[in-house]
Amino acid sequence: MYVEKERGNYMDQTYMKEQPVLKLILSMALPMVLSMMVSSLYNIVDSFFIARISEDAMTALSLVYPVQNLVNAVMIGFGIGINAVISFYLGAQDKEMADRAATQGMLLGTIHGIGFMILGIAVMRPFLQMFTGNAQIVDYGVRYSRIAFLFATALSWQLVFEKTFQAVGRMVESMTCMMSGAVINIILDPIFIFALGMGVKGAALATGIGQAAAALLYLILYIANPLPVKYRKKYLKVDLRLWKKLYVIGIPASLNLALPSLLISVLNVILTGYGEVYVFVLGVYYKLQTFLYLPANGIVQGMRPLLGYNYGAGEHKRVHKIFRDGLILVLVMMTVGTVICLAVPGQLMGLFTANPVTMQAGSVALRVISLGFIASSVSVICSGALEGLGKGVHSLIISLCRYVVVIIPAAFIVSRFMGAVGVWHAFWITEAVTAVISYMVYRKGVKG
What we know:
Helix content: over 70%
Order of helices and strands: EEHHHHHHHHHHHHHHHHH
Strand order of the largest sheet: 1-2
Structural class: mainly alpha
Strand content: under 5%
Oligomer: single chain
Radius of gyration: 21 Å
Number of helices: 17
Number of strands: 2
Largest sheet: 2 strands, antiparallel
Shape: globular
Distance between the termini: 28 Å
């Protein structure tokens, strides 16, 4: 039994393989779901305020989003690698290697943050000019991104802490830090954007301060209430063997999360041919869908350490039950999301625009795209479960089907016959096809 004494309290990691599965998933996932819902609210509130500046400002952020998402994807994906490796070593009762993995993860996370800060600032103007000749949109995008990417290192630290806390089951503290950053962001947005007259720069600064505040709170909690794993100076020396383990899981996970950026950029190219209004609608959809997929990701985040721990401990029956119960929970979420999008799409679009033409185009998009939400539950859970089991390549196969192999050809072909609406139909077609592929890949990955 792995038991560690910390300031008079015993932290017994074996609860991950002893508690009833559904109760355990809920206890691990609910804090993450709540924090993800607050993060989703931040995304919508942030976009709500930016849309009040002008539709050009919102369109600019829709074009910046793929690059931001790419940076976030690499950092979160690497964090998933940290989470899986730490969970596995804890399950295998090897605390020293868990400490090494945490320390090397923080080292690499810092390197990633500095690198993306420099790269993100450098590429934004030429990137934006690839998609629009509107000088105002380019100017909005450059002003926003220059400030946002200055905080890339703070974001990286936040995410390394986040995945380490989650790996040891400290979900409530992780929720507290994530929610604190989002709430600070929401409060600062109107102050910086309107009261101080900073416009899109204010939105970027509010985001960065929220990320830095969350990272600082994680550090305070780490010092005040130490984790079962430690960041240790003696383990800072480069460990290529551990780097390989972290990247074997982290790179496919990063690609999984980065593929939506590629997809959005390709879809923006297709939709631009039918009018910038559809680029705006796609940007709004991706903001709204975070309210559904981020909470679903909260379930996945709660599952990952449970899967990694039980897999490392050889508890394969519990691995299958964790998968099944997680799938049921996500199916319920997606059903609710489908009903909402079918019932009140106009009201949802009305949060971002008062233009009746844009609202009508957006309502059609939400109704059509939402037809694939329920089927997407299978892909979401299969991909997340495979990451938790250290099967990063299998998870990547699912994401490639979902974001490249099926949807891009479908969007191109169907739009030739139906116009911009054909792009929306490509979403549900892809989810239906990928759900079947995902389950087959999961079964093969688990047996392997």
